[in-house]
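My convention is simple: the sequence line spells out the residues, with the fold written below as integer tokens. I include a record here:
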Amino acid sequence: MIVERQKNSTLWQLIHLLGSLQLALILLATIAIACGVATFTESHFDTKVAHAMIYKAPWFLAWLGLLCLNLFAVTLTRWPWERKHLGFVITHYGIITLLLGAAIGSKLGFEGNVTLQVRGAAVKNITTNQSVLEIETPLNYHLYLLPFDATLARPSKNHPVRLGIPETKLHLVIDDWNESLEDMPTLVRRANEDKSEAVLLRLSSQALHQEHLVALSLEEKNEDVFDFFGLATITLMRSNKPLQPPTKEETSPAPLTPPTTVPEEASRLSALSSTDTKKIPLIPSATHKPWLALALEPNSDRVEFLLGRHNKTKKSGSLLTGAVVPLGWADWQMELLQSGHHEHIVLRTLPTPPSSKKNNLTGTPGFHAFLEDPDGLKSEPTWVSSGQITPLILKNIPIRIGYGLELRPIPFSIELVDFQIPRDEGTDTPGDFRATVCFHDRTRGKTETPRHEAIRMNHPASFPGGFIANVTGMNYKFSQAEWNPQNLEETTLQVLYDPGWLLKWIGSLAICIGIAMMFYWKEKKGNHLNA
């Protein structure tokens, strides 16, 4: 019968071709090799790379679709089915159902996290692990989300990524990326030509492998002081005092908060102003700390300096941009990067210096981008840091670009009522993490009654819960993920939403039942002979 219908029907020829064992072996072998490569990639790189290159790649999903077609076709080749075919058919349809559930969960479901604080505001969004671009159009200020991960795309000057800006003819061109960006001070000339003295210094130590940028400026005050880790002071002053050693009667300046280990926090930024006298000021007080006093010359950007300790000056001179001065504070030295009478300080996003990376002082990832119109006109390029909104302007058209993890809204809100960390007896080791959360169903409005749930290790909470939601998988599951030792009233919960859950379980159960039937549910020999 099978041979006869293959001869007489093109449709059955196609079905037998798609359901052939040779095609099945090719598909399974390719998928096995791809999974092996994905496992290697995941162990040597990370899960995100493996998902992007293989598991969620279009070619892999198409291959799985072809496998489902092969499994469906092979069951049709047994038509009309007999009792002995039942286990075979159930097993193959179980595999198809399992793969279909996995595809639905991958496309419509998500995994993310939410950080909550006791007595904090209710949270209505979940932070997923999907990196996206947020683009605000200039016409109606609509926000568009585009999936984009700079670490996976790896744009470069030779291989840039071009993305169309919705509702415009402009393109966003991404031509570089960096794993560590940070906001660094720089001096920019004022457009209104107001006098504002400012200097930008780089302090570096070869022995400690450290580097810090220090920006000082004057506007409505006579001095700007930077406290160098509590060990020394650097002061930018107006040139309105005669050059003389500091006296003991002078009042010591209030020390500033020592800089943190983050480079951009090492400088205290102030507004600016100027002066016209020629004499360099002194350190403003008599102090046991070493000090460095700076002032710009009235008619140039040259910077005069005094370096000393107590009321004694040990070194003096003048500096041009690029000049380096040993400070005598261990092996620390100072380099003058910028100076001017009409400058003000702005923060610009730039790659983290190599010296900071050596000390594990890393910033946030991001990419380098600019706007381009159809005529080839380009905007000023800039670095876009993760978690920040950066404006790009071309022909007076502002485009606001954001980059970071996607915030996915949920139809309810969650807040942390209480968080307890029981300790193992006699130790400070946490024995459990117990969070009490409150869910508010926003779809029901004022008629909704808040629901409290307890979350412990290996005991997640679900919302909306109930038999139907739990069985179908249309449920949000919250599990304990992290805690903050510095804030015992804060916890991070893992969130899982998988609408393909039911199909995956049905498929898995069908595979088990089908295999069992093929091995253990066989026709008796007597019945077969009678037939």
Q: What stands out?
A: DSSP finds eleven helices and 24 strands in the chain. The radius of gyration is 34 Å. Residues 242-286 have pLDDT under 50 and may be disordered.
